[in-house]
Write a structure and sequence with these properties.
This protein has helices spanning about 1-20, 55-60; strands at about 35-40, 60-70, 75-80, 85-90, 95, 100-105, 115, 120, 125-130, 135-145, 170-175. The chain has about 180 residues and is mostly beta strands. The longest helix is centred in the first third of the chain and has 18 residues, at about 1-20.
Length: about 180
């Protein structure tokens, strides 16, 4: 009887081994490109104020520190453009958008030291102002806005107004490089 049980156990183990199966699965880590760009919410309006004779003579410059915050999973470019070829006023007068020079600056929050900066005159055609060969997480960039001097705008002020405003929208975009 002991021999029979032992023989039966051996046959059972061999049968279980013959019918054992295995299968596999594949795991993929799939990385998709992500680029986000945000204008600092407290800097959504940029005013270039001409308040002195020097402003009219020399132009006006304004630095907006940490104006843009970007996130990119790889190499990227940041471009700038405007929706109109000119800044419009309520009086119907206009100023060419190309009178505005946009210059990127290194940010103070997680600066991206390897980024390449280029100034651009504002245009309806997107112009590259920042490029980098690698990505970055929550990197900031400042922007310097500069408008012309040489008394270009002396005759643009409308009498009896507190100030005459000329307006256009500036669009910043980020793209994979």
């Amino acid at each position: 009887m002991g021999k029979t049980i032992l023989t039966f156990a051996i046959i059972l183990m061999m049968t279980a081994t013959l019918f054992a199966q295995s299968d596999k699965t594949t795991i993929n880590i799939r990385l998709f490109p992500i680029q986000t760009l945000e204008v600092n919410p407290s800097q959504k309006v940029v005013n270039l104020d001409y308040t002195t004779q020097e402003d009219y003579n020399n132009g006006v410059r304004l630095d907006e520190p940490d104006h843009l915050t970007m996130y990119s999973t790889g190499a990227f470019v940041v471009k700038v453009n405007t929706t109109n070829s000119s800044l419009q006023s309520n009086s119907g007068s206009d100023i060419p958008s190309s009178d505005i020079l946009i210059t990127p600056l290194e940010g103070s929050i997680n600066p991206l030291a390897s980024a390449e900066f280029s100034s651009a005159l504002l245009s309806t055609e997107p112009q590259t102002i920042i490029s980098n060969d690698t990505g970055g997480i929550n990197k900031t960039f400042g922007i310097n806005y500069q408008a012309k001097g040489n008394q270009e705008y002396v005759d643009k002020y409308v009498a009896n107004e507190r100030f005459t405003a000329f307006t256009t929208d500036v669009i910043y975009s980020i793209e994979a490089r």
